[in-house]
Amino acid sequence: MGNLEQADSHYQKGDERLALYFYKQALEANECEYPADVWYRVGQLYEKLSYPDKAAEAFRNALAGESHVPPEKIWTRIGGLLYTQGDYAGAAAAYGTAADTPDFEGRGKARYNQGVALAHAGDYRASIEAYEQVLIDRDYVRKDKIWYNLGTAYYELGEYENAIQAFQKVTEDPEHPSPGKAFNNMGLTYHVMGKPEEAIAAFKNALEDQSYPTPGKAWANMGVVYLDMGDAQRALEAYEEASKDPDYMGRENAQEQIAEAKRMLGIIEAPPEAEAAEAEEGEVAEAEVEAETAEPEAGAAPAEVEEAAQVEAPPAEAEIPPVIPPPIPSAPVEAAPPVEETPVAPVEEQTPVAPPVE
Fold this sequence. Notes:
This protein is mainly alpha-helical. Helix content is 62%, strand content 0%.
């Protein structure tokens, strides 16, 4: 039995390491009629075995020859690998190449993923252009995800009116699973616009969403706004509610803000004068940090971007774990199907020991 036949047999059995070994032996021995197809399979195996660099290299080798796998699908896989490694510019370029392919049925997802990667690379203007192309793609149905990510990109660029409009689109879409996130982001946006009343209303709308996973964020952000308005009593109540949320990562900050609000209300005494200068400096710094964290957390591209930061996920054949970005507005990658293969007769010879992956 030749190397290619043994490789196919081990692949069918799920013996990835042995299959990889024999595929590479077949390539080195020039036993493959279509080497590009074999390189694609090698890329799939490296991907399964968590060798993203080697997988990307193998997929590029597949692109260099005549393959039965459409090149746009190979570029999609390369984009997913680069994205998970943090090479967002490279991922954006790969997704863009796939999305530019005429008649590619996965163009919308590839363009969406390009927008996500561009946003992570800090090129928000280019990410907006990519998202806008997806909006007019009739085959891409999850427009709520696009509007959500558009809102975060506009927020990062300081285009707050556009951000509000985008987040509003999300809250109006019945397909969106958690409008509370978008309302929270709207509140943060209104806050930086100097519109506290609108911000408070948005945070309250977020809290009305029973599916909103971290209401503590909205409560804490509301507390920041109330403190800015000089309403220490309501700020205290909001921070106390935030501290009750076990999933809210900023509970420690909430406790510190509770103490600050109580001092403002005269419920507890200020630090002794001997320590006043040092304590006051620390408290002010914390207050500023909390306000900054709050804005991005619920509305900026980091904490709530669980949708903008991710890329449309790959197929079961070579699943890439989704990547989650930081707070405001994040996605897995659509991967190509496995190369079709001819069924192989059962192997009767002794199974070799799996060699180490090289």
